[in-house]
Amino acid sequence: MSIFIKGLKPAGIAVVAGLAFFANGSAGFAEPANLTVSQIEAMMAGNSIFGFFPDGVTEYRQNNHDDGIAVVVIKGDKIRNIPWEAVEIDGTGHYCEDWSADGWGKLCFTVTREDPAKPVFTNAKGTSNSQNWAEGFVDLNFPE
């Protein structure tokens, strides 16, 4: 079997080869794998995430306790105790927080972790946000 297509000039061969490379998902550039339920639990229980909400302005810090409660502080707002859990949805691990008391409902995210200190949380609409992760608990106070 020949890799040459009849009548295709060398420049055309390069174009076809390039298109084949991109059609195969750019081999070697695989998307990071979603964490499993047990990986999410191990990452979150007894540890912290902090940074900014997807708006890039609203800063927060949170300590996730082993008992399924995250103590969340949003800068300039009150302290909240938010239930959290790791669950499987359609065969994929998700990190979920229940913000129903504030009228936001239950929010669930897939999680990837190419950089151990910066997990990426992706919501059901496909919006991703990288957060800072720390082993143990962080100071929940913001400097004045």
Q: How would you describe what is shown here?
A:
The longest helix is centred in the first third of the chain and has 14 residues, at 10-23. The chain has 2 helices and 9 strands. The model is unreliable at 1-26 (pLDDT under 50). Helices cover 15% and strands 36% of the residues. The termini are far apart. It has helices at residues 10-23, 37-44, and strands at residues 47-52, 59-64, 69-74, 79-89, 92-98, 106-112, 120-122, 128-130, 132-134. A 9-stranded antiparallel sheet has the order 8-7-6-5-4-3-2-1-9. By secondary structure, it is of the alpha+beta class.
Summary keywords:
single chain; alpha+beta; 9-stranded antiparallel beta sheet; globular
Could you give a short description of this structure?
With 144 residues, this protein is of the alpha+beta class.
Structural class: alpha+beta
What is the topology, as strand order, of the major beta sheet? Answer: 8-7-6-5-4-3-2-1-9
DSSP helix fraction: 10-25%
Rg from Cα:
21 Å
Q: How much β-strand is present in the residues?
A: 35-45%
Poorly predicted tracts of residues: 1-26
Helical region count?
2
Query: On the 0-100 scale, what is the average pLDDT?
Result: 85
Distance between the first and last residues' Cα: 72 Å
Largest sheet: 9 strands, antiparallel
| Secondary-structure element order, N to C | HHEEEEEEEEE
Number of strands: 9
What's the overall geometry?
globular
